[in-house]
Amino acid sequence: MSRNLTFGLKIGLGFAATVAVAFMIGILAVYTLKSVVASKDRVIEVDSQLLTGAERLRAAVEQKIAAARGYFMSPQETYLEDMRQARSEFTDEMGRLKQLVYTEEGKRALDAIQMAEADHQAAIDRLVSLRQNSTNLETMARMFSEQVTPKRVVLNHEVEKFVEREQRLLEDAKRASTSTATLAINLVIAMASGAVLLASTLAFFLTRSLARQIGTAVGQVQSSSAELQAAASQQASGAKEQASAMSEISTTISELLATSRQIAESAQRVAHIAEETAGAARKGEGTVEKTHGSITGIRRQADLVVSHMLDLGKKSQQIGAVLEIVSELAEQTNILAVNATIEAAGAGEAGKRFAIVADEIRKLADRVAGSAKEIRGLIEDVRSAVNTTVMATETGSKTVDDGSKQFAEVTAVFKQIASLLTTTTEAAREIGLSTKQQATAVEQVNVAISNVAQATRETETSSSQTLQTASQLTGLSRDLLRLIQSQAAA
User: Fold this and answer.
1) Measured distance CA(306)–CA(314) in Å, rounded
2) 8 Å CB contact between 306 and 379
3) What is d(CA 147, CA 141) in angstroms, rounded to the nearest whole number?
4) pTM of this prediction?
């Protein structure tokens, strides 16, 4: 039947048996440990505290007796306060002990101590009252020996009985705890010995059974590992060749990507330069148009100057006509002044004043005639300057017309240049976009080639590791088969 069991099932059965034994040992160890701990806890928590409490009772009684003696020797209030304090501690300790004691005998012992302490305290209280009434010291000593000392002996006896009883119970608890611990140790040792014996037996039978199964499996693994080694060797060789080819392809793609990026950068620079040139052409066109507008304004100003000059010539002619009239008036005035002078001379003394006036009028007429001549000369000069200015202005207008025609031609040329530069910019942008798309595509191809190359290198590494693992597996299978065969032979 054991031949039909699998390797894992045999190991599982052996492990289950070992676990079951270990579980039983654990349960037993936990049970015995709990018993020992409970026993120790009772010794520590109950019996030790009861014994310590009994010692505190004894100390409180001694403190109370010492305080009473001190008061009887020297009736001071501090002794009474110490006695009350000691009795309070005695009462508190009695309360704690009654809560801790767990046997009827212990409870009766505590009741007896409490009654003895009450009788002892009553005797002390009577002597304290007598001492307060100034009883002499000898009488107090005699009464203390007769009334208080017997009560003290009884109280001390009861306390000693309780202390001895608790010491006895503590020793019994210690012995019981030690006995429980010894029994637990013996049981654990026995179970451990049985578990070791069972594990040794199971190991012996499992070793013999598994050696046969492992021997068969190792033989199959050895043949499979040899085939795996040959296949891994071929795969490693092919992976190396593929990795070398992918490395060359990746280098070529990288160079193509670099070239595409350079073309894209050059196209961007060309487009940028074309945009700057187009902007400059547009600025030049605007400047030419502004200059053309300025020349047109100059032409209008020249026309206005010609018009004003013609008006000035007309008005100078009118001024000349007025000057003719003024000259005639001056001549007539001069003639009238001469005639007036003649008439004044004929009038004698009566015409002297009129002669003086006539003479002044004649002088004024002469000055007016001279001024008219000067104004006529200036008007002639103005007419000559106006004619010269009109001729020069007409010549300048013709020159401005020629310049305006040339500026129109320059504007048309600038427009044509701007149009050509716009076309160049659009073409450069299209080239840049196409090159960028090409660079993106090449980069994607480069990434894909890099991934394939990485996968190829990983495949090569994996193939090498597989080859190494197959070689190790072959060696291990031989070692394992040799070990199993040697054990079977033994």
Assistant:
1) 12
2) no
3) 10
4) 0.34
